[in-house]
Amino acid sequence: MRLDKYLVHCGVGSRKEVQSIIKKGRIEVNDNQLKKPNVHVSNDDVITLDGERIDYIDYVYLMLNKPAGVVTAVEDAMHETVMKFVPERYRHRSIVPVGRLDKDTTGLLLLTDDGQFNHLLMSPKHHVKKVYEVTLVESVSDMDIEQIESGIVLKDGTHCQPAAIKIMDEDTKVVHIELTEGKYHQVKRMFAAVGNRVVQLKRIQLGSYILEEKLTEGSIIEISKEDIQ
Ligand code: URA
User: Fold this and answer.
1) Are residues 108 and 219 part of one domain?
2) Which end of the chain is more exposed for a tag (fewer CB within 10 A), N or C?
3) pLDDT tens per residue, range 206-217
4) Is the same domain home to 190 and 86?
């Protein structure tokens, strides 16, 4: 790979920025100062910027606390998308959201350019756990819980897998629901099927990833390779 492309891939800067950095002699490859952006380098070369090693990044994994009002898409003609939270240095990579949250849903959304990881979490075959905090208009009754926990049938006849419910407040209007599937508007439709209505929906867990408490809405962090394994 060309040196300038390698540096852009690793998030050092845009093509123009890295070319200027290279020309200033700030890059060394195996202890040799290189001023040509088109030199070919590989993952085995030791590349430094101002003496600091730049390791090759295969894939980027990001955790966003999605705010309401943005759509989960790479592009949208009408609305702002979650891509606006991706750090500038990674904008040139093919990062996409892992699954989808509705425009008014908040909480945990992963983004990555690792297609295999994305597929692993999203494929219906893998039944990855998703936990949502749900705020409802009406209190949930024991009968509602029983129906949802034993596999509710939606208004259009769609059958849902059993989903565990945990009551979080005295009024029984705030609950945690654990799903192992991801049908369109599923949580909203499940509660609509028992005559209730979701007023706030926040995803707090996806697989083994738990929304970090310190992550405020609109904040995004990079998840390390160790977290992924
Ligand atoms: N279920 C919904 O209804 N909406 C979401 O955004 C996610 C799950």
Assistant:
1) yes
2) C
3) 999 999 989 999
4) no
* Backbone dihedral region for residue 40 (phi beyond 0: left; psi -120 to 50: alpha; all else: beta): beta
One domain for residues 69 and 113: yes
Dig out the tokens for 202 from the structure: 């926040």
**Domain check: are 198 and 177 in the same one?**
yes
Q: What is the pLDDT of residues 90-101, one digit of tens each?
A: 988 899 999 999
Q: How far is the CA of 143 from the centre of ligand 1 (A)?
A: 22
Record the tokens describing residue 140, joined without a space. Answer: 């949930």
Q: Does the CB atom of residue 106 touch ligand 1 within 6 A?
A: no
Kindly tell me if the per-residue pLDDT of 227 is higher than 80.
no
The predicted structure's pLDDT at residue 225: 64
Domain limits for position 134: 129-206
Q: Is 105 in the pocket of ligand 1 (CB under 6 A)?
A: yes
Same domain, yes or no: 135 and 191:
yes
| pLDDT value, residue 203 | 98
Residues composing the chain: 229
d(CA 3, CA 18): 9
Catalytic residue among 45, 102, 104, 114: 102
Is position 102 annotated as part of the catalytic site? yes
Q: Which H helix or E strand runs over 186?
A: helix 186-193
Residue 154 sits in a domain whose CATH number is: 3.30.70.1560
pTM of the prediction? 0.89
Centre of ligand 1 from the C-alpha of residue 228, in Å? 24
* Domain tally, the chain: 3
93 phi, psi to nearest 5 deg: -85, 160
